[in-house]
Amino acid sequence: MVVPSPTPARSVAAGALGIPSIDLSQRRDRVAKLIARACEEVGFFKVINHGVPTDAIARMEAAGFDFFSLPAHEKQKAGPPNPLGYGSRNIGFNGDTGELEYLLLHANNPSCSQKAKMINRKDPLKFSCVVNEYVEAVRQLACEILEMLGEGLRLRDCGALSRPIRDCDSDSLVRINHYPPCYCTNKKVEDELCTTTTTTTTTTNTVATATATATAIAAAAAAAAKSSSTMVMNNSSKHKISRVGFGEHSDPQIISILRSNGVDGLQVLQPAAAAAGGEAGGGGVWVPVAFFINVGDLLQAMTNGRLTSIRHRAMANSSYKSRLSIIFFGAPPLHSLISPLPEMITADSPRRYRPFTWAEYKKTMYSLRLSQDRLDLFRTD
Ligand code: GA4
């Protein structure tokens, strides 16, 4: 079933949408309520004071930029993405494309496959250590957020949402997307592309554009400036264009945690000592702090539709800088049974989804296009 085109809407700036920003250093009971409210009302929010070490983020971003600055034939050795590995423009197996290149890796063992060994041939161990360090910090963040969500939703078992991701057989993934700078010499083409973009953007979609607004760590930005990607379209052109980099979709897993080195992002001022690698600024150091969190399809199913897996998309880069986003997709083990939690099924809210395994859901998702609504196929009504 193909999802009909969303109602045409304007592109709205992220700030204007009022995306909730949650400071995780507040009292736990307050944070738990805020997370539950953000998940119910928006399905998307950003977190600050999340505890993921700044230098782990910087090392991960630098490793991404190092890889994407390799010549195309070197990068191709880590591809094709079937489904894991290096991909360029092609997304999934059913004809979706986007203005990006990416690395898709298993979160539990990022360099286990022969392909992954091609990512950093000189030092595969270093690459895998950097990814492991980042993934473990972000997995911990994902699980803490899910446990607080459980408290905020007053679940009897507050670990029910996080346990599948903590499981050592968890099928979680990490994706590094690289959106090269993208320019156009032809003003008419630019206008056409920009018009198309504007008329198909929905309010909910713009949240992913917002994900492009977290600011780069200074070290990674320096790496970006050095990056000589083979996907850069035309360096000599005058006009910036805005196109879909990764089309509209919802994330299939339980929870997604995204960081981006977007150009005009959010920063907070921290004491100099607290922020290694940040950009110096007056009395302190400006460091990017936000992670963006979104509810995935499985969390929608486990909460019987009380939380909604938000549809989003990412625009292709329209700046002079390469943009890198890193997303952790928290998923259960392949054979876990996904079913609405008992307390989410009530007289007012009867069961909406039949039980299914993650393996079954994955099979369905890979048989469909990016924008298709897969969870609908598991509804009981
Ligand atoms: C969307 C979320 C993740 O990026 C992803 C994507 C996956 C892929 O790129 O291989 C999918 C897409 C995502 C959903 C539908 C299918 C599968 C591309 C596609 C057309 C890694 C995931 O898990 O699902």
From TrEMBL:
Pfam family, one: DIOX_N
GO MF annotation list: gibberellin 2-beta-dioxygenase activity; gibberellin 3-beta-dioxygenase activity; metal ion binding
Protein name per UniProt: Gibberellin 2-beta-dioxygenase 2-like
Cofactor names: L-ascorbate
Species the sequence originates in: Ananas comosus (Pineapple)
Residues in coiled coil: none
Record keywords, A-Z: Iron, Metal-binding, Oxidoreductase
A Gene Ontology BP annotation from the UniProt entry: gibberellin metabolic process
